[in-house]
Write a structure and sequence with these properties.
Helix content is 34%, strand content 18%. By secondary structure, the protein is of the alpha+beta class. The chain folds into two domains: 144 residues, no CATH class; 73 residues, no CATH class. Helix 5 crosses helix 6.
């Protein structure tokens, strides 16, 4: 069976992938072989398995080199185009404070892009005048964090040290961060927040009890990649 790939525009606009032509970035919806692979995933192997999954369905950028925002965008795209744009969520209504099940439309999520002039490394100036070059988090950083946490659960500064562009070994970058004033740590964290790109995971809903429309945070859930139960029945609808 032919592999039908679709051109896709990443939230990063490929500005952080040297030598990548955005026209070459393509993706296809899941097939049965992909669902079989997803069924083998669990929370312990998730990060590395996501890389393998994307290698099977996505071309143009090495999956481990993707930014975290681009990867989230691709995973949401797969949910929308492989199954259904809508997912079910159990929430506490902001208006009537009742626990309800609502349907959220992921196809209507706002997508935030990197500004056209963004370049890496990105210099920031600390309070003592020191210039630190930064880059955005990549998928391979998340894999390193998972491996690090197996021996040291305190990965807070290790994660940010990975995003410092430097020839210094990672342990020295961690020590560097440990000795910075917190206002400089805030500056480094603020860099990542300022250049967040990807789907904004907030969706409108109408409460089935009070009928008021509100907005709710909808963080990505692994279960969206292989829907089951009542959600699956709703998706297939009258096809059965």
């Amino acid at each position: 069976m032919a592999e039908n790939y679709f051109n896709i525009s990443l939230p990063s606009k490929c500005l952080v992938y040297p030598g990548v032509n955005p026209a070459d970035v393509k993706i296809r919806p899941f097939k049965g072989k992909d669902e079989k692979f997803i069924a083998s995933m669990n929370y312990e192997n998730l990060e590395k398995k996501f890389v393998e999954l994307l290698k099977n369905v996505f071309v143009g950028v090495q999956p481990e080199k993707l930014t975290i925002g681009d990867r989230l965008y691709l995973l949401v795209w797969e949910v929308v185009n492989s199954y259904s744009p809508t997912v079910d969520a159990e929430i506490i209504c902001k208006n009537c404070f009742q626990r309800v099940v609502v349907t959220l439309d992921l196809s209507k999520l706002e997508v935030q892009e990197l500004p056209d002039d963004y370049k890496e490394p990105y210099p920031i100036t600390l309070s003592d005048g020191t210039v630190v070059n930064m880059r955005l988090f990549r998928v391979e950083d998340e894999i390193k964090v998972v491996d690090y946490e197996k021996i040291n659960p305190d990965s807070w500064l290790y994660r940010y040290a990975l995003s410092i562009v430097s020839d210094e070994p990672i342990d020295k970058r961690v020590v560097f961060l440990e000795n910075l004033p917190t206002k400089d740590i805030a500056l480094i964290r603020g860099f990542h927040d300022k250049f967040y790109h990807g789907p904004i995971m907030e969706a409108p809903y109408v409460c089935p009890k009070c009928e008021i429309e509100e907005v709710v945070a909808c963080p990505f859930r692994f279960e969206w990649l292989i829907p089951a139960g009542k959600t699956l029945i709703r998706i297939v609808g009258d096809r059965i």
